[in-house]
């Protein structure tokens, strides 16, 4: 029988959590209850709040006495983040669920993010709308809108809570176990590099690899980096590094300052290119910062405006990408498409810019440590089949030599 971890503030929301516990029992699931509130729970949990606080060296009574809600919440979040993954590794539960407002959601989601991808994770939350990145991050946490506040049992809340219970039950009952194991490759793609990545992906799959494609929209890049650090991949085909343009020049699809680090630092074979480094991404045209108003823009769709990078900006991108690639401790290759870096950076297209591309390539040539990173230059456009196949074959050779 599968076990579901029910984690939350059993003092302020005891009736709601007891409803979950009893419903799981009714449909044939065991539960493991962890109390993250600071006061007495409405029912006896399997893991007390004292135990959770002790995980990070805190005394619960002292926390309560200080009457500092922010400090208490932070302590319980850190304690929960520490104990939950350990209990999972010990086989104490197979799925995890919670309820809460902003406080409860902020306590439980770091612990859920610390669990492996694929472990069912549900939070019924008042915060399940708008920007939820601070709760979900790069994980597969499911935030389910509570519709009404998590404040009692009523005709709406009980329906939402029961839906969450049944969703968890379904994920655990129908878990896929027969999955063919193939070596995993991570690849990055943007709409304007799709032909390249699709061709490379097809070739890799023909050779027996499974390719997971990440959309280079900020979250995609961060997710890939996290999974590389977690040891999921045998190789990385990072052909679309456009997120650096947004990181450096204020675009909306940045992946943060640690993009392009994981594979190199972890010694995972990687083939890297400069896909879509001809553009910075903004929202609708009226959201573009005023100081960029006289630039070359391309309306990708009503919600996305692309701005062509200048030669000066491309030099900065090249310098930054070289800096990150120089961290490599394993086999790394940088492959440059000398005839264009995106679908709209080709002859006759709106972002065609040989001078701008040359600035990017020159900066990479000048700053790359070729004792650590092999530099390949390909006289083709990034979306040409010859380029895509060259990148894929290079990665396969590197992975096979490491195997």
TrEMBL record:
It holds the Pfam family UPF0261_C. Gene3D superfamilies: Uncharacterised protein family UPF0261, NC domain (3.40.50.12030), Uncharacterised protein family UPF0261, NN domain (3.40.50.12020). Residues 2-175, 182-399 form the UPF0261 domain. This is Uncharacterized protein (UPF0261 family).
């Amino acid at each position: 029988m599968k076990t579901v971890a029910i984690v939350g503030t059993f003092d302020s929301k005891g009736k709601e959590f007891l409803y979950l516990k009893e419903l799981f029992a009714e449909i044939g699931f065991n539960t493991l209850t962890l109390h993250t509130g600071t006061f007495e729970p409405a029912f006896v949990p399997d893991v007390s709040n004292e135990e959770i606080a002790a995980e990070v060296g805190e005394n619960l009574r002292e926390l309560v006495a200080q009457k500092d809600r922010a400090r208490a919440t932070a302590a319980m979040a850190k304690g929960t983040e520490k104990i939950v993954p350990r209990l999972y590794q010990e086989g104490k539960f197979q799925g995890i669920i919670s309820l809460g407002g902003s406080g409860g959601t902020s306590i439980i989601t770091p612990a859920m993010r610390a669990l492996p991808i694929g472990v069912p994770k549900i939070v019924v939350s008042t915060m399940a709308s708008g920007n939820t990145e601070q709760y979900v991050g790069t994980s597969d946490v499911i935030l389910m809108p509570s519709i009404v506040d998590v404040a009692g049992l009523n005709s709406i809340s009980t329906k939402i809570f029961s839906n969450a219970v049944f969703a968890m039950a379904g994920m655990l009952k129908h878990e896929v176990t027969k999955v063919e194991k193939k070596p995993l490759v991570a690849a990055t793609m943007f709409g304007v590099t799709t032909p390249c990545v699709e061709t490379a992906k097809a070739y890799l799959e023909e050779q027996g690899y499974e390719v997971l494609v990440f959309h280079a929209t900020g979250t995609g890049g961060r997710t890939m980096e996290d999974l590389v650090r977690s040891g999921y991949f045998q190789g990385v085909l990072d052909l679309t590094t456009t997120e650096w343009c947004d990181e450096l020049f204020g675009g909306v699809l940045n992946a943060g300052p640690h993009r392009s680090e994981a594979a190199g630092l972890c010694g995972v074979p990687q083939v890297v290119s400069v896909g879509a480094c001809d553009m910075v991404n903004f929202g609708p045209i009226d959201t573009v910062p005023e100081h960029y108003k006289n630039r070359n823009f391309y309306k990708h769709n009503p919600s996305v405006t692309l701005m062509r990078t200048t030669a000066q900006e491309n030099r900065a991108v090249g310098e930054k990408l070289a800096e990150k690639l120089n961290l490599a401790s394993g086999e790394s290759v940088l492959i440059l498409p000398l005839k264009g870096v995106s679908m709209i950076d080709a002859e006759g297209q709106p972002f065609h810019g040989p001078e701008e591309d040359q600035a990017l390539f020159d900066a990479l040539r000048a700053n790359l440590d070729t004792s650590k990173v092999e530099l390949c230059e390909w006289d083709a456009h990034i979306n040409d089949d010859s380029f895509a196949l060259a990148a894929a074959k290079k990665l396969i050779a590197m992975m096979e030599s490491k195997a």
